[in-house]
Amino acid sequence: MRLEPAVFKNQKVSQEGLSEALGQLRRDKKGNVSWEDLQELLKDKMGFWDEVPISAQAEQKIREAYDKSFQVESVEMVESLYARDEPVAAVSVGILNQMARLGWSNNTHTATYIPVFAIGAGCELFTHKMDNTDLPKKIKQAAWY
Question: Is the pLDDT of residue 103 over 80?
Fold first, then answer.
């Protein structure tokens, strides 16, 4: 199987951004969001149907998420460690990832420390806890030893 990243070229928002757009649609329509309204939003934000053809099975998954999200009194958000997303957003981004043949091991992060070891010139730069974003800076600094 080959990676198919071209399906992402029509994606205009992240899962979080799509959740926000779905929430705005819900507010604009005062909770009366039709299947056609949802399709128009997904065409615009994800390229579905027009630019990114989706299978009947994928459409059925989106329709089921729509029914759970828009045809009930209160929506049950999809929660991870860092986000609360509309079910339609989670399903839609999942479908796009599947079409691209891209997978993530999980949708959360942990606060667990990860050990980093270094030997040789500059290794003393790696003897303490640090933010992961500082690692490339330290590696660059060590390269000048």
Answer: no
pLDDT at 105 over 80: no
Q: Beta-carbon neighbour count of residue 70 at 10 Å? A: 22
* Among 65, 108, 72, 107, residue whose Cα is nearest residue 89: 65
Instruction: Please give the backbone phi and psi of residue 34, each rounded to the nearest 5 degrees, phi first.
Output: -85, 165
Answering whether pTM is above 0.70, one says: no
